[in-house]
Amino acid sequence: MSGVPSGAAAPARPEAATRPVQPEERLAAALARLILDPAAPPARHIAVGAASPIPAAACWLVKLSGNPVRLSLLHKRSGNPFTEGSRELFDLTGQGRIDLFFLGGGQIDGQANLNLVGTGEWPGTAVRFPGSFGSAFMYMMTPRTILFREEHSPRVLVERVDNVSAPGVSPPGVFRRGTAQALVTGRCVFRFDAARARFVLESLHPGETVAGVREATGFGFDAPDAVPATPDPTPAELALLRGPVRDEMLETYPEFCARVFGPVTTEGVAA
Amino acid sequence: MQVPTPDDLARLVPDGALLALPPDNSLPSLALVRALVRRGARGLRLLGVPVSGLASDILIGAGCVAEIQTSAVSLGEAGFAPRFTAALKAGTIRVRDATCPAIHTMLQAAEKGVPFMPLRGIIGSDILANRPDWLVIDNPFAAADAGGGGGGGDPIVLLPALQPDVAAFHAAMADEAGNVWVGRRRELATIAHASRRVLVTVERVVPGNMLEDERLAAGTISATYVEAVALAERGAAPIALLDEYGADPAAVAEYARMARTEEGFRAWCERHVYGDALKVAAE
C-alpha cells in the first residue's frame, strides 16, 4: 500500500488479465492514498455513510492492505457496528472518536461549503436535494473529511453554494476539529488549503487537462505549473479490490461490485 | 384476546399529531402507514428520526401531512422522494430542515425531561439560520480564554426538547406482557422514551416476557412505553426487517417510478394501499 503506485495496469489474477482499470477503481485507490496521507491526522476509526460504494471500497482497500483501522459502515445490515442506533455515530464523533468521514453535496463551492439541501431559496425551491443529513455536525466535529463527488461540472462545483448545509471554514472562536482534506471528483483530485479557504489542484485523472478542469469548475482554484496524473491502482491494489474488497462489499453493494469489479463468480450471487 | 390490526392503530393517531417515524434502515411500519392513508389522516406533522424515507413519502403523497421536520428525505438507491419533492414545490407542506444529531438530541432532552440540550457543530449552517427555535449561547463553563477568539465566547447551539405525540414503528416481535423487540436498533428506544404514545406493529406475538430473558432484554423496549401493538406480517416490507427479511429494491423502484406523477401515485395506492384493505376485508 505504501509502495510507489505503478502507472501500468497489470492485473494479478489471470481471469482479470484483460480487464482494464475501471475509473471507480482508480478513484478508490486515490481515496485510499488520501486516507493514508502521513501528513494528515491518523485515521484509526473511519465511518462511511449510505450509498458510498467508492469510499467504502477505499476504506476496505486500506484495511485489507494491513493497516490497523476500524471501519464503521453505517448501512451495513448484518453486523452493524452501532448498538445504540444511528445516534451512536454522532456521539462518537462529538467526542472526537471518529477520525475521518466522507461527505459530498449537490453543490460544493470554492470555500468547501456544502449544499445538500437544494438550490434556489431555502429549503430548495429550485431543485430540492434530499437534505443535510448529519453534515452540519460531522464536517465540524471530525478531524478530517474527504469530499467525494463523481460529477465534476459547473452545476455541482459552484462559486458559491445557494444554501449552506455545512460550512467549509468557521470564524475563530467557533469550535471545530477539522474540515476538508481534499475533494475527489471524476476528473481530478483537489487538496483543500483551509488557511486560505481555497482548493489546489493535485492530480488529473487520465484524459483531463488543467484547462478542461477549469472549464468544468465553477470556482477558482490554484494549480502548480506541472500537475501530475492521478496514479492507477498498483497491481497489488487491483488484486485486493477485485478479490477481498469485492467480497466485503457484496452484501451492501451487489450491483456496484458486478459492474466495477467484473463478473461475479461467487456462488449464488450471479442472479 | 383479539390482537389489533394496523387499521385499529391508525385510529389512535389523531389528525394534526406530531408523528415520529424511523427511516428505511430502522424498522418503519409500512403497514401502519398504509392504514393511515386508508383512514384518511390529515394535518400530520412528521418527524423523521433522523431522516425520512418511503413511509413519509407515501403519507405526503396521500395528503396526510401538513409539515415535516427531518434531516433528509430519500428513497436511498431508488433516488429522491418524488411526492415529498412535489409537495415542497407546490407549497402544500411546510419543511423544517434539521441535521441528524440535532433530532436525536432534541428527543434525548425529552427523554430526560429537561427543556433543552446543547449540541456542537451547526454554527455557520443555514439550517441554524432557518431555525428560530434553535438558540446559540456562549458556553457558560468556558474558561475566559477558551475558544481561541478571545473573550471566552465558545458559542454553542441549544436545542429545545421535542416530544412527539405519537411514535410508530415496526418490531420483530411483541410478547404477552406488551414488550416489543427491536434488536440493535436502539434509536427506537429513544423515540419510544421521548414520545407521549407509542404504536407498534409486529411480525408475531410470542409467549412469556422478554425482559426475563437476558439475551433478549437489551433489544427490548418495555411495555411501559408502548400503548398498543398490532399484528402485521411483513409489516416493514418492501423495507428490510433486521435479519428476518431483506428489502425488495424492485418494489421500491416501482414506487419511485410510479410516484413521479400524481396519477401514478394514486395507481400505486390503489394497488398497494387499498388493495390491502380489500384483501383484509375478504379474509
UniProtKB/TrEMBL annotation, chain A:
Bias kind Low complexity: ranges: 8-20
Record-linked SUPFAM superfamilies: NagB/RpiA/CoA transferase-like
Pfam families from the UniProt entry: CoA_trans
Region: Disordered, residue numbers: 1-22
Annotated InterPro entries: CoA_trans_fam_I, NagB/RpiA_transferase-like
Recorded GO MF terms: CoA-transferase activity
Protein name, entry field: CoA synthetase
From TrEMBL, chain B:
A molecular function (GO) term: CoA-transferase activity
Stored InterPro entries: CoA_trans_fam_I, NagB/RpiA_transferase-like
The protein, known as: CoA synthetase
Organism: Roseomonas acroporae
